[in-house]
Amino acid sequence: MEKSLFSFIWKYSARQQIYILLVTVLSYPVVYVLLELPKLIVNDAVQGANFPRSILGVDFDQIPYLLLLCFSFLGLVVVSNGLKFYLNVYKGRLGERMLRRLRFELFQRVLRFRLPHFRKVSSGEIIPMITSEVEDVGGYIGEAFALPAYQGGMLVVQLGFIFMQDPLLGLAAVSSYPIQGYVIPMLQKRVVILSRQRVRNIRVIADKVGESITGVAEIHANDAAAWHSADISDRLYENFRIRYEIFNRKFLIKFLNNFMNQLTPFFFYLIGGYLVIEGNLSIGALLAVIAAYKDLAGPWKELLSFYQMTADVSVKYQTVVENFDPPDLYDTERLTADDKVELSGDLVFDNVSFSGGAAGQEVMDISLTVPAGTACAIAGPDGSGRSEVLQLAAGLVSPSSGKICIGPHDLDKLTDSTLGREIAYVGGAVHVWTGTIRDNLYYGLRHRPLIPPQREGEELRLYKRRVSEANETRNPVYDLEAVWDDLEAAGADNIHVLDEKALELLESVGLDKDIYRLGLQSRFDPSMDDAFTGKILNVRKSLASRILQEPALEGLVELWHPDRFNASANIADNLFFAVPADPEITMDQVPEMAEVRAFLTETGLDEKLQKVGLKIAETMLELFSNVSGDSGLLGAYSFITQDEIPEFERIVRIAKSDQQRPGLSDADRSRLRGLAFKMVPARHRLGIMTDAFRDEVIEARKAFLQTVVKNNPGFVAFDPDVYLPPLTIEDNLLFGRARVDRRDARRRIDDVIRAIVEETGLRRPIIYAGFDYHVGVSGSRLSAGQRRRIALVRGLLKNAKITILDDIATGTTEDDKALRRGLQEILSGKTFLFGTSNADIAAEFDQRFILDQGRISDKG
Amino acid sequence: MTLEAEVEALRKVPLFHGIDETKLRLLAFISDRTEYPAGERLCAQGEEGDCAFIILSGDADVLVNTPEGEKKVAQVSENSIVGEIAILCDVPRTATLVAANNMDVLTVSKDDFLKLLKEFPDISLEVMRTLALRLERTTRDLADARRGAGGG
Q1: Alpha carbon A639 to chain centroid distance?
Q2: At residue B152, does pLDDT exceed 60?
């Protein structure tokens, strides 16, 4: 990678830079004439004599001559500003493109690092390098040649103008330049060093913050917050100190510049004044020189700050780029090649040695052969070199000596396109990507875009633009919206077959139950699959009829019924009898929606609910005011938390007093309303839920459906015959509430649901719905075991010739034993390496290599 | 039935005898109110008990396991408390309870009751007093029985 910023800029944008320069040079005459014209207007057109003037054979009287000059001036102003605008846009675009190229290059280099290199770098340091640290480079690139050329040219033009008026004045104008040219770089040198320090320090801070986030549980578990705080605080002080010193120097430079620049007019007035008095210089010329000098200060300042910026940005560029140039990068070819060779044949290690750079990570002089299509255990405790051997076999790391071949192919000479498709490797530390379960399962099939999407019209135009920009910046043109899933590789004809294969594998690793549960909890868009929706509604119906028929089930559930009050649901559900179409809006937020508030006020329900809320608040205070917060009684049972008690005491006091002032605020009222809405009559037996109130709620429900829910796309009404997209699949199946006043009602009804789902063949679609479950950041919403199993299925789905598992399914439980048998069965006929630290487990395999301290100690 | 009715029922339970009304209201509020249709089990002999049942309405059969199968030994009805020892210490259920007809039961869980004891030590005193009285009576009964046996 280019070591210096200028060679980078020149290499990738020489043509554009020259073009910018040309356009800039083109603007000089315009600028010069712009400077010359005012003088001509004053001296010749206004004060001149002997009219008419003859220009291009046309005679001009004084007034037309003045008009001609003034309009030429106007025209030139337009031209010069137009050029400036055009250039600025052009430079901005160039800068952005170069920045994109640079950033992509850096990212690609990260992908080209060899695995052991990642022990030396941290994401906390790499991320700011690619994102924020190079940001300034983009702004600079467009200016790199143009600014010095333009402003330097300006300076020369204007200096030339002054020199042409009078050489002595010219000398006066540049008198301070040598001093500035000497002192400022000296000061700047120190600033550059400080900038480097600052960048490094900020990187360390970023890294430490990142580390604190990843290890936050450790921080709390060890009460190490103080230590980390002190550490960061120290770093921040360091940052402050460096910046403060940079400021000092920067402003010193600024001070010197300003001072010098203002010193020059002193010479003008002295020398110029003398010349005018002596009659050697016209007063018009002196005024023009002074005007020109004012314009001179601009370019000079710009040049100086450009110089500072160059120094600053070059440092940033270098401090970034030096981190992306380790000596043993993979070739770009390894990432970009799309040719796949078939890896059939025996896996052979031929005197292979490897060192990961630390004790317990070496492999010494290993020779082994695993015949094609057989299963083999590689056993050895952690630190025996087991993981290294398996990574070597997967081509993830390269041997320092020796050769690893599969058939005739040396793994070290193969590209990712072969290694990543022909070999499935699942290591002990799996990574699950942020996204859905489906994304993660099919991740191993997404090598290249396969079927481009159909685009036309505006969409096609936008796409073409995207591609041409990518080409401009040497970014890849892979289409993210294309179909990437390589069905053929997985041995599936279409996506449904692939889904089935995935399900089969999930069943064999024992993850199907978990995904079924996730599927029940997920939301499903009914427009995607009408048949599925219909089935769910059928299950809902048969569930309802079974509940009616079977005495054992009756009374476990209260189904939603338009005319009945559901005592196991809270007042909000009962009253609104609808859910917001946007699942992000919780039921608590509904009463605060404008249309709902209007409805509550109009129907007078607002008052009523507030009264109910007040009664609840009173009871709660009476029951819980003597209870201390740490007993666990509060919160778990009451509507209000310990912190809210004083607040509600105040509200109740105000509400009880007869005085009108101070009345309850809107917030207070909404709190009371909130309490009322939260009440579940069957659980909270406060005696508030009278039959009259019950009927009132039912009446209000009907009115609410008529006035608010109907014709409002923001709500979906409860309807036994309609699928409700904002509810989970489970809630849609049950369409009611498990009774809170029956023991184990929830569990018992879940069993019934599961049975009906099985009977109606709905289990499969529900699992597929579970495929769309979002796993959270890096799979944080899954357990460690689930993550490992998903990674395992991902590896198996690749249907690769060679499958390598390390520390996966190595438990001694019956489940894990069955899983290993299943794996051997699934992978029969394929080469299968199984890494484990347990010798007994290794004994389940026909072939074994036992590793100890980096050497093969035994085989069988 | 509301909280007030539950408090009335609790008041009739000897174990809660000396506890004042507001605390009983609290206990009632934090307890679960559960319905059992005829035939449903409240608890099974041998399993770990974690709650006491206060019968608000209906009756339950008390069954014990015998070599010939389950055998009804007693019936409990309205306002009686069953399994109250379970809310004070960990003991397996000594009998099975089956609802004889539709029942309405207040379930006081051990955790909640212990939390309540911790929160209001005077309740502990009342419970202790009740238990001590019972112990004293049992001891005397035992002594009487022994004397009776020795004499006979």
Answers
A1: 38
A2: no
